[in-house]
Amino acid sequence: MSEYRLFFPYVKEQLKLYIFGFIGSLFRFLIPLSVPLIIKYIFDHLLQNKGLSYSDKIEELLSIAVIMLVIFLLLRAPMEYARQYFMHKANNNIIKSLRIDAFKKVHSLDAKYFTENKSGEIGTRFFDDIEKIRGFMTAAFSNIWIEIVVLVCVIGVMLTLNIQLTVLAVLLVGFQFLIAHLLSRRLKDSTRNMMNFRSVLSGFIFEKIQGAIIAKLFSSEKRDQKDLHRHLDAYEVLTEKNSRINAIMLSSVNVLSDLTPFVIVLVASLFVIEGRLTLGSLIAFFAYVDKMRSPVAALVQAIPTITEGRVALKRIFDFFNTPQTIKEQENPVELKNFSKEIKFQKVSFSYNKDKKILNNVSFTLEKGKTYAFVGESGGGKSTILQLLTRMYDTNSGEILIDGVNIKEYSLLSLRNHMGIVTQDNFLYSSSVKENLLTAKFDATDFEIISATQKAFAHDFISMLPKGYETEIGERGVKLSGGQKQRVSLARVFLKNPSIIILDEATSALDNESEKLVQSSINSLDNEKTIIMIAHRLTTILHADTIFVVKNGEIIESGNHQSLLSLNGYYKELYTKQAEQNEADKQTNENVRSRKIS
Ligand SMILES: Nc1ncnc2c1ncn2[C@@H]1O[C@H](COP(=O)(O)OP(=O)(O)O)[C@@H](O)[C@H]1O
Ligand SMILES: [Mg+2]
Question: Residues in domain ABC transporter (predicted)?
Fold first, then answer.
């Protein structure tokens, strides 16, 4: 029931439109409903009335025709229009609100959610599920209620004609509902399984589309196709079960529904023979039994749609209710100026319970200085930055900025102070300029160009076919890795935050460009606090303090010289890289001299 309760506020917002539509529907259905009564009147009071003269009969018939014409033309058509228009409008409004809320929800979900759920699966909420809700609303609000009202009215009128026959008809119809009800529970389970699987399927397909090029490179198309077959076969089993339940339900109900008028006519004829029922009443009654069939059929046929909609509602609201752990406090503090320091105090963290990633990490970063984190990959360097940007919260310990726990700041103001460039940066498929503008919506061309110049991106951007207006393809596929990194760097320079975070941000650049970009970073005004993670130690030698991270702990810290003199792990790393560089140089020279000789 709870999914209906959660859905109610959406419906309530559109109540006015629904009421208009509902009034329209009533007329639309009640007008045809009066027809059998008029027929009875014609039969019993006109045709079989010996007291009326020929001209009286013709006159009365004509006036009935005129009244009917007026009702049908002047009332029914506008009412039908109102019903269709207002109901659709209300449904569309609800769909729109649901999509807006779903999108908001996407933005408020924790980073963790996206590591555990595929984007295709999340996407089904927007399309598949929400469209199913449209079907549900059309059935529930435009049709079902009306059908129920019609059914009640029909039964009411029938009661005035003959009580015993009405009871018989109601019993026969009730039996049909009983069958439908008993089967609908099974239908709900199978529909839920089917829809959950459909979202898995769409996650699978979406991912394989994104990976289509990898599939080519590894010639794994056949395997992917086999996987798809496996998924589709499993889906087929579910849909078949669903179809079977539907078929059983509809076939048994339809047979009963076909049988009903026949039974009624037999019994009613008996009543006519006994003189307990007029012929006109029999004909009217028969017409009403026939009118009963269509709401009953509509109600039964709506069951699968309603069931799907109900499951879709549940899926949507389960999604809306996904708990959010990274959130603001009741009255968040605005981080206006970052003025002093960032402090990690005995921070421990794990992504999952089974493995501790950071263990008791403490350090202080002062404003305006440059820091570096180095160490083997997997040591936890990037994780430190995930915590600082509050993508995740610490398990224990605190992170303070200017003496205040970062959990107390508003997320917006906290993240506004930080700009991050990583190894693999997400770019939108739109133009270079649009991508840059995500950092600052109102940036002038001058600001944009000075940012791209700092990132040594202006030259290559200018040479793209349409310059800054060039569309760069999904996730920036039309750019090289180094170009993407430079655009991402420019994006951060444009944002101009007080804390700049570079997580292997120049890894895809060649040595020459890396040096240029580094010099650019070094020349940033000394108000900026720079946090770098770099695999190539040569790029971080100048940092004020270098933290050496190993297995989730900071084992050494200091500047380059002092770390070397420690003769510890840093020295080991540095010597290893220096030897490697030397060896590479040697190989290059050997190759060159071999070519010459
Ligand atoms: N989203 C995640 N979920 C679970 N484990 C993760 C996640 N991100 C990283 N890890 C794990 O955390 C450890 C540290 O990763 P990371 O901080 O990225 O290391 P580094 O940046 O030093 O190479 C690794 O063992 C990695 O497997
Ligand atoms: Mg990393």
Answer: 342-576
Report pLDDT digits (tens) over 250-301.
898 888 888 888 898 899 999 999 988 888 888 888 888 888 888 888 888 8
How many angstroms separate the alpha carbon of residue 356 from the centre of ligand 2? 16
Give the closest residue (by CA) to ligand 1 atom 17.
380
**Protein residue closest via CA to atom 26 of ligand 1:** 378
Q: Which of 347, 359, 382 to mutate to test the pocket of ligand 1 (most atoms within 8 A of CB)?
A: 382
Q: What is the pLDDT of residues 538-554, one digit of tens each?
A: 888 889 999 999 999 99
**Residue 216 clears pLDDT 80, i.e. is over it:** yes
- From the CA of 550, the nearest ligand is 1
Q: How far apart are CA 340 and CA 367, in angstroms?
A: 5
The C-alpha atoms of residue 342 and residue 367 are separated, in whole angstroms, by 8
Q: Are 371 and 532 in contact (CB under 8 A)?
A: yes
Q: What is the mean pLDDT of residues 422-426?
A: 85
Complete DSSP assignment for 335-399? -----SEEEEEEEEE-SBTTB--EEEEEEEEETT-EEEEE-STTSSHHHHHHHHTTSS--SEEEE
Nearest CA residue ID for atom 1, ligand 1: 115
Which residue among 109, 351, 384, 388 is best mutated to probe the pocket of ligand 1, counting the most ligand atoms within 8 A of its Cβ?
351
CA of residue 313 to ligand 2 center, whole Å: 39
Give me the residues paired with residue 499 across strands: 418, 529
Which amino acid residue places its CA nearest to atom 6 of ligand 1?
351
User: Cβ < 6 Å from ligand 1: which residues?
Assistant: 115, 351-352, 357, 377-383
Ligand showing the shortest atom-to-Cα distance for residue 373 = 1
Q: Are 510 and 389 in contact (CB under 8 A)?
A: no
CA–CA separation, 384 vs 398, rounded Å? Answer: 12
Query: Side chain identity at 63, as an amino acid letter?
Result: S
What burial class does residue 214 get, using C-beta atoms within 10 Å of its C-beta: 0-12 exposed, 13-18 middle, 19+ buried? Answer: exposed
Contact between 340 and 529 under an 8 Å Cβ cutoff? The reply is: no
Smallest-distance ligand from the CA of 392: 1
CA angle 63, 69, 71 (to 5 degrees): 105
Burial of 285 (0-12, 13-18, 19+ CB in 10 A): buried
Q: What pLDDT sits at residue 595?
A: 63
Distance CA 513, CA 489 (A): 13
CA of 552 to the centre of ligand 1 (A): 10
**Percentage of the chain exceeding pLDDT 70:** 99
Q: Are strands 553-558 and 545-550 parallel, antiparallel or unpaired?
A: antiparallel
Give the Cα separation of 272 and 278 in Å (integer): 6
**By alpha-carbon position, which residue is closest to atom 18 of ligand 1?**
382
